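lol ok so funny story. i was supposed to be doing the assay writeup but got distracted and ended up predicting the structure for this chain instead. priorities right. anyway since i did it might as well share w the group, maybe its usefull for someone
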Amino acid sequence: MKRILMFVGLMLLVSIVSAQELNVASFNLRNNSKKDYENNNGWTQRRDVLAGFINHEAFDVFGTQEGRRVQLNDIVKRCPDYAYVGEGRDGGSKGEHCALFYRKERVELLDSGTFWLSQTPDVVSKGWDAKYPRICTWAMFRDKLSKVKFYVFNVHLDHRGVQARAEAMKLVADYVAKRCKGVNSIVMGDFNVTQMSEPYKVLADNELFNDSYEVARYRFAPTGTFNGFNPSCYTTLRIDHIFVTKDISVSRYGVLAYHYYLAKEGDATTSVKSENREIKNISDHYAVQVWLKLKGAKKNR
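and the output, tada:
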């Protein structure tokens, strides 16, 4: 009997420690461009599948890029476990957002804000040689399970401005170093550059950070992170990244290369059949997921 009780106790301990990991992701949603409807990739054509994906993965925190306010509200409507923070890059609710969604049951929002990746970060602005205003949305959370606080920063770097990308990453790194001393911090987003680029190296070579891809105990990356809505696209290049401060441990990293089958008019849930269907991607980027443990989490079991 004692052996059984010891075994049950050990299993409970393992499950508690495992449960203290946070499930975090970065996901470029692709905006609601009208031209995407030409190839059945329009927002309203894929939003239900995308929301189902989010509910299934049950991310504790995830950052999105490109999403406009109507898209973000569509997600919350279909994913009621979540709330989000973030301002549009054109100010207020205007333009694309770098939103941070959080699962209300698991994490508590303590503070949040948005700054512009420019020489004047407190006002709507374009930085250096960027084509568009670019932003970083940040939030401070408390893990309700471990009681540990942590920061998340979500960015979308410019697709044209070479200098803007490098300077933006310096700005974010400096912000984390000054504001988040001693606090677990995560920097994620669509960097619009690969793991061989200079802007990437701003964080990769910084003594504060680790690339979660590099330090994860287990890695699932069947392809890179951009797919252009092409399910057959394969690449080893990653332009979507998740960095963590070095006191955070990463157990698993994944590029979630999920697909779905295009529905046909007249489909019924009760029908049983097998046939060829067009394969679609839920966005032109794949979500990047990491399972991580915050420093101090074990002490609060």
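The chain has a mean pLDDT of 93. The longest strand covers residues 107-116.
back to the writeup now i swear
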